[in-house]
Write the structure tokens for this entry.
Amino acid sequence: MAKPTQEDLDNNVYHLVTGANTGLGFSICCRLIDEFLLQTAPSPSPSTLTIIFTTRSANKASDTLRRLQTHLHTTHPSPASSSRITLHPETLDLHNLLSTRLLARRLAATIPKLDSVVLNAGIGGWTSIDWPRAIWAVCTDLVHSVSWFEHKVAPKGVLAPVQTSGSGSGSEPRLGSIFTANVFGHYMLCHNLMPLLRNNSPESPGRIIWVSSLEATLAHFDVNDLQGLRTKVSYESSKTLTDVLALTADLDGSKPWVKSFCTADGQSDDKEEGEEGPMPNIYLTHPGICGTGILPLAWPLFYLMLCAFWMARWIGSPWHTMWTYVGACAPAWVAGSKQSVLDDAEGPYRANGGGRVKWGSSTDRVGRDCAASTEIDGWGHGGVVGGAVVEADRVRRRKRGMKDLTAHEKVEFEVLGRECWRQMEELRGVWEGVLDREEGKAE
């Protein structure tokens, strides 16, 4: 592939979205299309948008491509608009770490850069719901129970499929199923995509955008059980790990391991010696509470769930986005906004000693959406010690029991982040060796 000019890099935008077959991932793709064309509509623009979206099979990829094309041509019927959008399907199985390598190699051979990677794919792993407790909670404590739903049932210790050929259960390191699908598969993918993510200008670095959950909380996470194999809340554990990694990625304590993660294999991290561009920015988002298929329900129960969400929104919940297109607000905003817009949004938090923000999709009572800071235990609003410094954060309904962040809690969160980054990089190093040996067998 011919080396692109700087003008080509500046005028062409490339986003990768994982898990785009249905629900939130599909809606993120739709919003990226809609907002790109809206932002560039006032005057003729030479810029183009390429969305690479992943599904687990070729059949799902074809179906998703057809539905995205339908959305594009229905919502933006102008041929001039449609001609500026390219939709590129890919297959990816996050339970298969070799699959993450193969995808990165295919993309490196076909596109010049990645402006953002939206890490949306994942699984819940729940097997049932404790219905008596769930019904009682919804009837007696609606907003809290349908925002932080504590009645899902999941087994402990579920492992991901064996990664290497001819391996028995004891011949390779264990990988938790939820941990691999929600965190580690994406982690390995992003490391392999670093040459593309770092082929951006310093004014607009690449972005790694994790999609977390409102349910993430430190109460569900144990750093000595990083993969969540000893807990019945492995989904919530994986999302809490996601939060910790993303929010501490730009802190000095995590820097050695983050630099290692952001350095492509076989390349130098020293810009004077290598040709790598700026390290990507790592952001954290969540979709609020919307109806997706991650919690499988029969259709009557699914619509009853949406009714409960609607009532919670009218009572005052800021997080019940209900529909996946609205839930896609925050991830699409972080992916598609100019760097200056994101820097300005983080500005009030950084000016008061904070850092990264967990951006959530939020709505008012009538469904008008926006990206809003989400208060989380151990980090507060954007890592600012004390009360909220942004007016919208002060008036937004809080989770019951939340208290203003203390300096001690923030230090503990930073220490936790450093340890999580260390363990993740050590685990990645182990698995890079395992995969190298596996690929060597196939040659």
